[in-house]
Specification:
The complex is a heterodimer. Chain A contains no helices and nine strands. By secondary structure, chain A is mostly beta strands. Helices cover about 0% and strands about 50% of the residues of chain B. Chain B has a single domain, classed as Immunoglobulin-like, CATH 2.60.40.10. The chains are: A mainly beta, B mainly beta. At the A-B interface, strand 3, strand 4 and strand 8 of A face strand 4, strand 5, strand 9 and strand 10 of B.
Amino acid sequence: LAKTTQPISMDSYEGQEVNITCSHNNIATNDYITWYQQFPSQGPRFIIQGYKTKVTNEVASLFIPADRKSSTLSLPRVSLSDTAVYYCLVGDALANQAGTALIFGKGTTLSVSS
Amino acid sequence: EPEVTQTPSHQVTQMGQEVILRCVPISNHLYFYWYRQILGQKVEFLVSFYNNEISEKSEIFDDQFSVERPDGSNFTLKIRSTKLEDSAMYFCASSEPLPWRMVGYEQYFGPGTRLTVT
């Protein structure tokens, strides 16, 4: 599994765009990049997944440069409710046909203030 | 929106006692998982389950742990003789079947059971 590095914490204010960058220098050809969000006392929740370039959904955008050695999760106009821990996961999404274990790091704790 | 449910939300038990944590995965999902999170620490994978058998387990999932799908809806985690260090939040998750979509990392987590061993 590719090792990931992301900031331990970030602070932001309501209405700002937040970009959380994850480094994964040893990413393999078959690896996908996935981000999860975890609110206090809740289970993690899938946000977005991508392989290369840019992926956007109703929650966030994921930017992946051509070398794929890093990725950036972008949250547009955050609100207080976006305060959570954000995890970057990298792994071969197709490796295990019977389900894939998610290996979480410590994540980035995002604190949004008013 | 379908969701994973877990019961109980909080379980307090004495060291050495057996506990069973229960989960109802999303109905059309075929892959089931247990994770745990010790307070203030990261989420750790315990075990994955498919086709009525364990497909993968971590070092944490030793002989004290077992999983079962006793019927068509429930998925359980049993800890035979609890230790103080088993105190944690336990999350059940499920994911969709193959083969027509990628087996990605989109797993659906339940709200968790907080296990306190005294």
